[in-house]
Amino acid sequence: MHHPPPDGMPLAAVDVRQLRKEFDSKAAVDGIDLTVPAGSFYGLVGPNGAGKTTSLSMITGLLRPDSGTVTVAGHDVWRDPYEAKHRIGILPDGLRLFERLNGRELLRYTGRLRQLPAHQTEERAEELLEVLGLTEAAGKMVVDYSTGMRKKIGLAAALLHNPPVLFLDEPFESVDPVSAETIREVLRQYTGTGSTVIFSSHVMELVSALCSHVAVMAAGRVVADGTLDEVRAGRTLGERFMELVGSPASKAKGGSLAWLGSSSG
Ligand SMILES: Nc1ncnc2c1ncn2[C@@H]1O[C@H](COP(=O)(O)OP(=O)(O)OP(=O)(O)O)[C@@H](O)[C@H]1O
């Protein structure tokens, strides 16, 4: 599942050292280190509030870290943002799109931002729309898209300039099973040529099925990382996840919420 990087690409697609961010004097990301090998399909998992989105925002140059360094394809994201961002595609969580453009116009606009030749944008946009099942909706304004369609047009925009590294925050959320399989297929093809995908998810089965590497975050720290098999340590990823971050169900058994469900009185 792990493919070698293309020529000229450093072995680490993403290298994160001692990355840290505080909000209101509390560490949301508490000095994390991550090495994402080029060509890997890398899953970032962790409970709500673990710091995944904050980390991805800093890694992709959207949120300034308090300290630490990030390099993408050998370029420092904060010192050399132009070179680094050129090599990054992003599908952020809660994606904000230009609502009054239609799907096709959004891709044209993205192509111009990415400085692609117009004919290349046209060709790639039509292919992406087709593969993602959006051709029919291409003339419809994005404001009228469903949540799943927004994810898909966001993915098309992120892939348009064929970046070596793609970041996806919850790419499968609200996506129907058929579209999810399509997205998986597109991403497999993409990593199959040595490109790298880093994505966050809450769905352990999905991460297990797709990822070559995984990092588990909890309370702003990386509590386990490595190949899927190293992190699983002989169990399912779901079992290992519960072990690493603690199951809230066991807390509920302790007596709190005792009133819940006893509606007979
Ligand atoms: N802009 C902000 N201002 C203040 N606190 C923030 C801000 N963004 C994130 N936080 C806090 O940082 C911590 C990490 O949040 P983050 O969104 O990175 O977690 P997450 O792992 O992505 O969670 P989820 O799985 O729920 O999306 C949380 O405690 C959150 O409340």
UniProtKB/TrEMBL annotation:
Any one GO MF annotation of this record: ATP binding
Subcellular localization, as worded in the UniProt entry: Cell membrane
Parts of the chain that traverse the membrane: none
Domain ABC transporter residue range list: 14-244
Membrane association type: Peripheral membrane protein
Pfam family, one: ABC_tran
This protein's name: ABC transporter ATP-binding protein
Origin organism lineage: Bacteria, Bacillati, Actinomycetota, Actinomycetes, Kitasatosporales
Keyword tags: Antibiotic resistance, ATP-binding, Nucleotide-binding, Transport
Organism annotation: Streptomyces peucetius
InterPro entries for this protein: AAA+_ATPase, ABC_transporter-like_ATP-bd, ABC_transporter_ATP-binding, P-loop_NTPase
SUPFAM superfamilies (UniProt xref): P-loop containing nucleoside triphosphate hydrolases (SSF52540)
Main location: membrane
